[in-house]
Structure formats: C-alpha cells, structure tokens
Write a structure and sequence with these properties.
The chain has 376 residues and is an alpha/beta fold. Helices cover 41% and strands 15% of the residues. It has a five-stranded parallel β-sheet with strand order 2-1-5-6-7, sandwiched between helices.
Length: 376
C-alpha cells in the first residue's frame, strides 16, 4: 500500500511539473471560451489591410492559417503614413501601382484597415500627425466615400535603440492621439497593441523575433483574435456609419431652408426634377437628394444647388453640370448687368464625396465652405 501511495505521489509530482512548464509557454492559439459575439472570418471578406513590415506578419499568418476571410493585404517594408500620403511608395495590385485613395476603388473593398505609424513615430509633432491622417482620410473619402476606415494601434517595441527617437512612450502617445482623431472624424480605432504588451508595456519577449519591434509569425494568432473581438473597436460595428453615408443626418431641404433664411434670399423658386433634368442634364437616378433653386426675378442670378449623388461617378457628372451652369450665367451677365456679373465671378461649384453644391449668390465662397464642412 505504501508503495502504491508513493507511485501516485510521483505521478502527481510529474503532472505538476509539466503543468507549470506548460503554463510558462507562450499561448498563441485561440482561447477555448471564445465569445459567440466575435466577428466571423467572413466579416473581413470585403476588407483590405494596408501597412508596413509589422503588418506583414499578420498577412503571413492569416494566409497560412486561412484567417480573416478573403481580405486583401498590401504591406511594404518601411511603409509609413507619410509615404501613403505623398505617394513615394506605391501599393501594387494586378500590375498597377496605387496610392491608398486610388487603390480602394480598384479593389471594391468596403473596409480598409491601416497599421501605419511605426516609421513615423518620433519624426513629427502632434499636429503633423493629425494633418497626415486627415490627408489620408480625405483622399479616401474623395475617391471611395463608401469605405469604412479603421486605424489599428501601433504595436509596442521590446526596447529602444541608442539615439533612436522611437520609444514606447511615444508609441503610446501616438496611439492616444490616433484614437482621439478617429473619434472626431468618423473613423474606427482598433486596439490590437494591448494583445502584445507585457506588464511593463513593452513588447512581450516571446513574441519578438529581433529584440526590437518585429513579431514572430505565431503572434498573428493573437492579432487575428484581437481583430475579431468587437470590444477592441472604438465604435459599434453593427451601426450604419462611414463617410459615404449621410454621417451627420444632414437633410438637404432643412439645410437649404436655414441658408435661405440666414442669407435673406428672396423670391427663390425650387425647380422640379423634370426641369433639372431638361435644363441641366442631371438625371433623377443620379441623386438621392437634390435641390436646385433660382430667383424668380429674372434679372437676378441668385441660384443654389445642393445634391447628394447616388455614387462617385454621378457626383462628377453633377459637378460638371454645375461648372457649366456658372459659365453660362457669367456669359449672360457679362455685358448686361455688371452687378450680377460680379456675383457670377465669385460663384462656386464644389464636390465633397457624394455631395455637390453650387452657389451663385452674394458670399458664395463663404457659403460653399460652410456646406462642405457640414457634409465632410
């Protein structure tokens, strides 16, 4: 009996040793109690990922393990927000080289995930980062307004190199600013960095392959799990949002009514859809909302157009019609009514994503700027 107890004790001791050993091993597999509300791989089917060499680890893991659905990846070593904005490094797709804003319409993607900043952190002040993000986002919303924009947090580093401006403190500051920018500009911030941090905020040693910033391939498992967890996203993914939609709930009729009252425009007459089509060539199917109003006094040039186009191509057609309208009115008034001709000289036709406006009124430039800021 005593011998039997000793054998059992020995087995239990061995199991304890093994258990301790295994609990010290890095865990890369998905947790067994993955919550049901996690995003499915198919949710990423219409997404593209744009990033640097660190993002290349996610690409390699996702493709090797069939993760993140049919998402496309565009990762380049030393890629940065700066190069994404100025075009010094292009992203290649089916034989062509593109900047992000031109790439998105080519792919038909509805979501874009950026991991950019590691090669920018430490190079600029806070204001410069914001201007780079804005340039990137504005370019996308100009060319692909229906795309939802996601910014992933920059991952931590293991240690700083001598005389290197890149530090974890600066990465944390960058991420803090990036999250605030996303909150204010209808983008979505995704916290993936937390999955890679040790207790002291540095990159976990077992996940780092070069003692600096780059990740081992199996770290991609944690990354995929972070992307599938809605808790890591700064906004509700089930809601309707994105620059292509009427983000602020802007009702063009309400906007026009407020503008007409504020600018004290008198005798304005709203044209029917048929008149807009016959006179200006703007087909009803080219817009989801549209107002074209002219002054009932035929010797005054006051005119306002506010359109929400059905898509980007329709917006370009409406913009061309607006520009032609300004030219026609200017030609009519040039040698006829000098004061009205002066108003046409400062007329403005502008497009912001799917929104197109035309102002031929006193103070056109100011009013066009206000409208553009409202819908952008």
């Amino acid at each position: 009996m005593e011998r039997r107890r000793c054998e059992i004790a020995a087995v239990l001791l061995c199991l304890s040793v093994l258990l301790c050993a295994f609990t010290r091993l890095p865990v890369f597999a998905a947790a067994a109690d993955t919550p049901e509300e996690q995003l499915e791989d198919s949710w990423f089917d219409d997404a593209i990922f744009i990033g640097d060499s660190i993002a290349g680890t996610l690409q390699a893991y996702a493709e090797q393990h069939s993760q993140l659905g049919a998402a496309l990846f565009f990762c380049r070593t030393n890629y940065s927000i700066t190069s994404a904005v100025n075009g010094s490094m292009l992203l290649y797709y089916r034989g062509g080289g593109y900047m992000p804003n031109a790439l998105l319409p080519q792919t038909g993607a509805k979501k874009v995930f950026f991991l950019l900043g590691m090669n920018d952190v430490g190079s600029y002040d806070d204001g410069r980062y914001a201007s780079l993000w804005s340039a990137l986002v504005d370019g996308i919303r100009e060319n692909a307004p229906e795309v939802r924009i996601f910014f992933q947090s920059v991952t931590p580093m293991a240690k700083s190199l001598p005389n290197n401006a890149l530090t974890n403190a600066r990465i944390d500051r960058y991420n803090e600013l990036l999250r605030a920018y996303c909150d204010e500009n209808d983008c979505c911030y995704v916290d993936v960095a937390g999955s890679f941090k040790d207790d002291d905020g540095t990159l976990r040693a077992e996940l780092c392959r070069d003692g600096y910033v780059h990740l081992i391939l199996d770290a991609g498992a944690l990354w995929c799990e972070a992307l599938k967890d809605p808790a890591n996203y700064s906004r509700d993914l089930s809601g309707e949002w994105g620059a292509g939609e009427d983000r602020q709930g802007e009702d063009l009729q309400a906007y026009y009514d407020g503008l007409a009252a504020e600018a004290e425009l008198e005798d304005m007459v709203k044209l029917s859809a048929a008149t807009v089509y016959n006179a200006y060539g703007i087909a009803p199917e080219d817009y989801t909302q549209g107002i074209a109003a002219i002054c009932g006094d035929s010797v005054r040039v006051d005119e306002i157009w506010l359109f929400e186009a059905a898509d980007e191509e329709a917006a370009l057609r409406i913009l061309a019609a607006a520009q032609a309208r300004i030219e026609a009115r200017s030609e009519e008034m040039k040698d006829y009514l000098p004061d009205q001709y002066e108003i046409t000289r400062h007329a403005v036709a502008v497009r912001e994503g799917r929104y197109v406006s035309l102002f031929i009124i006193p103070g056109s430039e100011e009013q066009a700027g206000i409208f553009s800021r409202t819908v952008s």
